[in-house]
Please model this.
Amino acid sequence: MVEKCLLVKYRDFLPVTPQTPLITIGEGNTPLVRSQRLEREIGCGELYFKLEGCNPTGSFKDRGMVVAVAKAVEAGNSAIICASTGNTSASAAAYGAVCGLTVYVVVPKGNIALGKLAQALVYDARIVAIDGNFDKALELVRVLTQKYPIALVNSLNPHRIEGQKTAAFEIVDKLGVAPDYLFIPVGNAGNITAYWRGFVHYKQAGRSATTPRMMGFEAEGSAAIVKGKPISNPKTVASAIRIGNPASWEKAVAARDESGGMIGCVADEEILNAYKLLAAKEGIFGEPASAASVAGLLKLAHSGHNFSGKRVVCIITGTGLKDPDTAIHTAKPPMEVAAELGAIETLIVQGLEQTNRAP
Ligand code: F0G
Model:
């Protein structure tokens, strides 16, 4: 049986009208996988990872973009634009391509992961690289969309938030209940806003009895919400969330407060540690920004927060394949030897001895 596309499956909860084109490139319906090892180490009841990197362009952005682009087409737009740290631009470029739109993406020059740039290039977007950060890029595209008939497809566009909330629906549909805690990275703060809206809408519709505590995590060098003020020169290894003035700041704070959750921050070292643990212990290769959710969970667990008996979901927002540079610079390099049996055997024997010695 062919799966229903996102716009059809959750039509009753989305701004879909008879005029909305039901476009799809296979977004949504991403895996919710149970932890194999970290669950035990952290001591939580159940730990799940929502693999948003399994969306067609490799990140959660596709859920919101399919709605935003369908609505732009419905409204008669022939061009769309976004500012991006990379994933939004890849997604906008893909959905724009499907609909034959002209796509403009404005990105911070030299500061987006290589895979994301490659995507926008191949999807044939018009890429404008500025000498400035994401916050500046967003400021500029907001002005441009007021002057020209181009649809803004950043998460300031309410249709993006509507689409992204479907991930919360999927979690409740799969688990049969809402989790106790939802850990999620925070950059421009659209996604935490969207998930909260999804959980609230499902509760209002009688599909779940409870809502989770929303646990958002910014990167320490870009933690505007945690620090209570915009950061003019945000820094972090996690380029996707290198954002100093989140557009959905107030909505994220409301999600935090209404859900009884928190917005915290994690240092780059904690992000990279979680990034490697996730891959080495769970077989999940998320991008560094995605690992901020797991880093936040580990930080709380290590500081004594008790998750026993609790159902916890971490959102893995994008695939690690998008950022090969970080992978190569943080992992052990390959072992290089001569193309001879003996040379490889020596390495294997050493490795087996180490494994046998390990506790
Ligand atoms: N994780 C990934 C992989 C992202 O690409 C982003 C944001 C976030 C988390 C944070 O989500 O902004 O809704 O709080 N990326 C945007 C972009 C900013 O341009 O691709 P948020």
Summary: DSSP finds 15 helices and ten strands in the chain. The radius of gyration is 21 Å. Residues 59, 61, 84-88, 155, 185-191, 240-241, 287, 289-290, 317-318 surround F0G (CB under 6 Å).
